[in-house]
Amino acid sequence: MATTLQANLRTDLTGSSTRQIRKDGHVPAILYGNKIDSQPVYVESVEFLKTVREVGKNGLFSLNVDGSKHQVMIHDMQIDPLKNEYLHVDFFEVDMKSEIDADVPVRLTGESPGSTEGGVVTHLLYDISVKCLPNDIPEEIELDISELNIGDSIQITDLRDKVSVEITNEDEETVVTVQPPTVIEESEDADESGDAEPEVIGEDDSNKEE
Q1: Is the domain of 84 the same as that of 128?
Q2: For the chain, how are helix, strand and coil distributed in percent, rounded to 5?
Q3: Do residues 73 and 52 touch, judged by C-beta distance below 8 A?
Q4: What pTM was estimated for this model as a whole?
Q5: Which of 65, 94, 123 is the last residue of a domain?
């Protein structure tokens, strides 16, 4: 495991200290696992971003906490939607010999024939839940939609033989579908009102004067 992220223990857990950590360019975090006690830590924000980009959402890496190394993965991240900054991170120490649950992103590939005919490709399930050993977690699941026509769909049951790990979603869950194009029909009332001739006001009075 080549990727290593440096972390430092947090001893002051007050709100003012946490704000100062962020102000200094660090991200407050927590390290926990089934065989260790929870440890409040913090990491350098730029190095953390580099690690995320390098290993991916479900990647494994080494977290070095004051000289003690832990094999971890990112369990959760809190991000400020306005500033697009990391607010807090959960690092989970994994047991390399025990299966764990993880959510794997789905990436659609190819072009659906149905979409060229006016159909709408609707991606319904962006993540698929799997259970496997930490080293076997796929970075993403590619889904080829190049044979999907209008009305076709791909469900979880269609993927079980194509993915090397156990999928824990229900069989009937739909991952992607190609919906028919939406046709807006004019109502008959609208057609009838559009064909009606306008009424001429005052026509009868002019005839009477004559």
Answers
A1: no
A2: 20, 40, 40
A3: no
A4: 0.71
A5: 94
